[in-house]
Every structure is written in structure tokens, then in C-alpha cells.
Amino acid sequence: MMKKKPALLSLDQTIKPPKCNKKIPIIILGLLLLLYVILVSISSTDQTISIKYQNQVSQHDFGSEFHVPESMKLKGLSEVSKESEGDIKDEKGVENLRVEATSQQNVQNQAKTDKQPSTDSQSSPTASPTTTPKATPKATPKATPIPHSTTPPTSPKTCPQIDIATDLNITDTYWQVTKTSNGTFYLYNAYYDDRIAIVGPPVVRILGFIDVLFPKVKTYCQFWYRNVSQPVITDVYEYRYIWYPSWGENRKGATPYLISCRNPHPEVPKFVSIVEHKCDTANNLLKVRNKRPQVKKKFIVSVKKLDYVQDISMQIIEWLEIVKILGANKVEFSVLNVHKNVLDVLRYYEADGYAKVKLIKYPSDFPEKDNWHQRMQNELIAYHDTFYENLYSYDFMLPIDTDEFIIPLRPEDNDWTDLINRTAWKALEQHKLPDSFQVDNHYFLLKTPIKNFMSINGIPKNLYFLSNIFRAANFTPHAGNAKTFLRMDRVLTIHNHFPFSCIDDSNKNWCENFKVDREDGQLSHYRHECLTDECKDSMLNPVADTTLYKYKEQIIRGVRQTLARMEMFMGRGHNVGID
User: Fold this and answer.
1) What residue spans define the domains of the chain?
2) In CATH, what number does 297-574 get?
3) Strands, E, within 263-402: which ranges?
4) CB neighbours (10 Å) of residue 274?
5) Span 550-565, pLDDT tens digits
6) Orientation angle between helical segments 313-326 and 340-351, nearest 10 degrees
7) Closest by alpha carbon to 442, among 410, 471, 417, 415?
8) How far apart are CA 77 and CA 58, in angstroms?
9) How would you write 117-186 as a 3-class SS string?
10) What average pLDDT does this structure show over 219-223?
């Protein structure tokens, strides 16, 4: 029997795939799941680290008391910019900010996409201003500390979009007014202060009036920076009272204050606003003044408000030539109301670069009539404005009037630099670091009591100072009417005759006021008549004093040259001449 041949196998039949093990896909799936878990864990860890790092950087750089907008975090800070105040005009500043805000709007919207508006009570205009805790400010005399709450921090990290201040509440051209729940602020100017003696961050100081004595309201500074569309918000940490309470309180008017906020960033803010609540839309916007000249000079003279209807133009010319010889690099005048000839003289010296004229008007809400405190305190605004606007331009500021000047008495001392150097060495020998140098007062009486007094040969009759040589035999008692050279790097607040407060390491802000020896220098103060008892008593026995004659030829030559140039440029209409 024949054997049956086996059937031939097809190629598909001979090469069949092996049977799969059902456990293999399960193992692969498990490995993929494990890999996914690891990747998710790493991503979550990175995100946590990133958030913690951002929080640490925010707290380290800005402190918990500062609100940093998202636009600042996203964009970052530009390099430190210290430009002169003329680089950006005040009238263009708001428009520039508006353009910058528009260019940043997309970034702002993107940053806020996943954020819900804060429900914090501080963002409500009716919220109490004392709900946000603050670090306790350093106790200083003549300064009002701001009250702080003990409640936990609830302030929002971001505010809703804050509009740029456009509806500015400006009164009398010179003052921006903002009302709070505890007084109305009349704001004048703002200044950047990063002097070496200051401990901590630089400060922006705002000069103005407040119509409440020792205000308690909690307020904030909104700082506007270049290329940043939202403000950085910091606390007002101090209202520094520019007056001595023992002199009486101005309860019928408004008192001058220096309002201070710390700048949280290395960049100098371009503008600052004061608000009562962090997220308020401000109705004030002050340019932060920060002049930085290439060359620092020695002395600037500040003259309080000129308010004369008389033509004292010749006296002003002679006085300006005298203080120029004695060492004044510049004289700044605050002018309220003067005779046309006087204004012509001031404008001439301003065009020459030696003087600066600032027209000023005080808030009409607080008239000086029948208010001695208001009249005296108004004068302090001009002095502080000159001081802080020129903080880095001069070594000393001297506040004096146009009927007085400080003169060195020793023959070898020619000017104020010699007098200050001599006095500084004496202070060093006594291991003292003066904040100011005080010079005592001698009265000269223009209506001399000497009956046989006659005009002096070679001295023009209408030169007031050179033609009056009789003064009181004694200095004014109790340092009355003394005037002071103020160190720009040390003084905080000032009076006509001395500093109120200075920077020191004790946090008491007291001043080391060092007196110039009476044999070294004097304040020569020329009066038409004596109105006070101290003046009358000191003039009982007048004596001749020709110390000024050391500069006689220079003074006469300077006056003649000025008159000739004024006649050339202004014509004879100014009616100023020399006899």
C-alpha cells in the first residue's frame, strides 16, 4: 500500500509568528505609567521651587510693605537713571506715562488672565486706612509717626488697573491738593534723597502743607517709573513737622510738613502721587526732582519771599555784588511781589546765570493777615525748596535776607571758604562733626544816630552798605538773629536761622550746630530802624566798623559794570543809577 505523500506547506504555513505572551503588554504599560508619574512629580517640584524662589526674591528685594505690580515683575527694572530735572518736562510727563501704559497693556492683560480681583478691604475707598500692618518707624523728634494695625497682612498683591492721574487738583498754580479722612494736603514739590548719611533705602520727600496738626491718617506713595505702566506703592512712613511746638501752633491755617516714602528700587521714580488707599486713583502727580550736576559748587544763598512795593533795586545790586565777592556761587530768590525795577535787576542776574528767580504764591485758603504763624511758616517752604532741589549741587546753603550778609573779620580770611575752613579745624580739634556753622549778629543802623555823620569820600551816596559804617558795639544777646551755613549732606529740616533736624546715628535727628568765633566772623545786619528791644539795646553805643572796605573797590566796580550792562540790554527805562 502506497504511503500518502504529505501535503506541501505554504510559505505562510511554514513561517507563522510565535504566540505572544499575554504578560508582556501589562509590563510595558506599567513601565509607561511609572515614567508618567515621575515626570509629573518633577514638573510639580520645579513649579513649587519656582514659586518659592519668586516669593523669596519679592520679599528680599521689596519687603512685605511694598506692593510690586505684575508689570514690574514681568518687565524688570531698567538701569539706574539719575538725570537732571530738565530732561523731561513736567507738562509732558503725564502724556509720556500714558504712552508707556498703552504699550504695556497687552502684558498687563496677559498677567491678569488667571487672577481674580482681590476682595481685600484696602481696595475699597471706604475701608479704614489702618487695616494694613506696618513696620514701626523710628522715633524722631518733630516728626509724626504713622499708626500701624496689628491685624494680619491682608493687602492685595495686585491692584486693579490704576489709571494715570489726569484730573489733577491744582490750586493757585503752585499747589496740588488732595483731601483725606484726616486733613487736606497741599503738595508743592517732591525730591529724591539718597545722601550717604541716610541709613536704609533712598527716600522721596514731598514738601507741602497739611491743615491738621500732627496728622494720623495712613497714606501711601504711588511711584511711577520709566517704562512701567503700573505704580509701585509704598507707605508714607513719616510726616516731619517743620516747626517747634513751643513756638505756638498754627490752628487757623496750615502747617508745613516733609512727607517721606522709601524708594524700594534702585531706579529713581519719575513721578510720585499721594493717596489714602493703595489702589486709589490719585488726583496729584509730582515730578521727583533729582538734579545731579557734573561739578559740585560750594555755596548757594536762599532768599525768602520778596514782597516789597518800594524800589530797592540799588540795594539789591550792591548786595548781590557783595555776596558774590564773599563766595556765593548762586542766589535763589522766592518772589511774591516786587517793584518793576527790582524784577528787572533780578532778571538781569538770572540771565547772567548768577541768580534764579522763583515766582511763588501760597494757598489762598490760608491768608497771612492776622496770622503770624502762617506768615512765618510760609517762608519755610521757599527755604526747603531751594535746599532739596539743590541737594547735590552745593556743599552749603545760607538762608539770608537782602539786608544782611556774613563777613569774615580776620584780615587773612577773604571769603566764606576761608571762614568755614578755619571754623571746621576748630571743630575737629574739639572732636565734633558739625551739621551747620552759626554766625552771630551785629546790627547796623542805616539811619545812623551819629549826628555829625557825613557821606564818605569815594563812596556813592546810594550804596547803602558801604556808606553806613556804624553798628552796635555788642553782638545781639542770646544769639538773636544769627544765621547759619547749612551742610547739604546732613540737614533734614531748616528754619531761617538754624536747622530744625539733621541726620545722625542716634535716630534722634538732632543737629550739631557749631558757632563761628566772634573774632572770626559776623553777620552784618542793616536795619532802617530798630523795632525790637534787643535791637534798641544793642544800638545804644554805636561804633564804626569798616570791615567791608576790604572789598570796597570790587563792590563799586561790580555795581558800575552791572548798571552799564543793564542800560545796554534793557535801556534807560529801568531807572536804576549810581550817584
Assistant:
1) 75-108+124-289, 297-574
2) 3.90.550
3) 271-275, 286-289, 297-307, 330-337, 355-359, 394-399
4) 25
5) 999 999 999 999 999 9
6) 30
7) 471
8) 13
9) CCCCHHHCCCCCCCCCCCCCCCCCCCEEECCCCCCCCCCCCCCCCCCCCCCCCEECCCEEEEEECCEEEE
10) 96
